[in-house]
Amino acid sequence: MRDFLSELEKEGELINIVKPVSTKFEAAAIMKKLDGRPVLFHKIKECEGFKLAANICGSRRILAKALGVSEDDILRKLNDAIENPSKGEIVEDAPCQQVIDRNPDLRKFPFLLFGQYDGGPYTTASIIIAHDKEYGFNASFHRLMLIDKNRVVARILPRHLDEFIRRGNRNVAITFGNHPAFMIAAAVTWKIGVSELDIANSLRKMRYTKCVTNDLLVPADCEVVMEGVVTDEWADEGPIIDITGTYDVVRKQRVIEIECVTMRRDPIFQAVLLAGSEHKILMGTPREVAIYKEVGKVCECLDVRLTPGGCKWFNAVVKIRKRHADDGKKAIEAAFKGHGSLKHVLVVDEDINIDDPAELEWVLATRVQMDKCLVLKPNEYGSSLDPSADQYTRKTCKAGIDATLPLDADPKLFKKAKIPGEESIKIEDYIK
Ligand SMILES: [Mn+2]
């Protein structure tokens, strides 16, 4: 992350906050004011010696820059890395192990209070690494709530890490201060047994190092690593703000005990603003890839966007090149297969700009007859995050709209009319 921060600094993209800020709401309020723009807090009132970076993957533009591609190529780049994972270099003398603390007090670390009803101080940029003999390494994001000196309660959904723990793998390493390539790789939920460490290395060359108290590998160039053990204890986790910007319910979750912390001499801790642009990009982008993959199996998929208004989680737009009458309906089913939490999907033709909400509404206004285009799917399993669904049983009603034109549609009636010369005309030439 440190190198990327220097790049951002050079290009005038980094906002430096030099006045000391508090972990209690103040840091989060500034992150929210600057949502989408990378920020570095130089002094944290309660946590001497720590800097804090936030909003690092705050926009698609910054993420594209971090991955060395154009915005249009983000999904293809990430898809390639998922399909072709590769091993990173293993090194000793890692920067993230300059300081070793075998009796850590996490109350000295910048865990943040975000919202007024938060159950406790949280870390949100925390990536947990675990290992299984058969499946290899796994890395995934988990918010952590501090419950006392060296214990945190982790929100762990029934995905890969949960499976690893059930299989008896209790050692974990929690890494902070990572490059966007590692962050977006850790946000990927793909097949169990495909290591996010290897996906990250295919996005950008990575160096890994062995932990001090166990054999787990962590990014050598990260800022802080908490080495610990998943206990048999469960504790209340939450309430805390989730991607919707609303409060998630309190659940009993697993307690992790931290036995050792390693870090750089001048560590930069890291936070992700809850419900902020970075949170949505990290959660949403890998799901866009998953939808892109599935839709690509049934028709020609050109691009996918989980929309910002749909929390980059619930509502998708899928752009296809239609060749058969049923491509649109097939794309709807494939999109739901690709992303289990998806609630609404709109399938559009290749002439539509899927980043323009007004244009998407124009599609609804001019290309859709709901009695023919709408696919309703009541009583499906959806996301636990949707306050309008049953958050315990996850039952929800899903819907897809096929807004693609019939193959024999007259383009004159449906495509945006153009005025010859409108794109090249220069108003300056006319007002002199
Ligand atoms: Mn995984």
Quick summary of this structure?
Helices cover 26% and strands 28% of the residues.
Q: What is the percentage of strand-forming residues?
A: 25-35%
| Structure classification | alpha+beta
Q: What ligand species are in this complex? A: manganese (II) ion
Question: What is the helical fraction, as a range of percent?
Answer: 25-40%
Computed over alpha carbons, the radius of gyration is 23 Å
What is the CATH T-level topology of the domain at 278-408? Answer: UbiD C-terminal domain-like
Characterize the biggest β-sheet: 9 strands, antiparallel
Describe the structure.
The chain has 432 residues and is of the alpha+beta class. It has a domain at 278-408: 3-Layer(aba) Sandwich (UbiD C-terminal domain-like). The chain is 26% helix and 28% strand. Helix 8 packs across helix 9 (327-338). It is globular. The mean pLDDT is 96.
Key phrases:
432 residues, alpha+beta, UbiD C-terminal domain-like, 9-stranded antiparallel β-sheet, binds manganese (II) ion
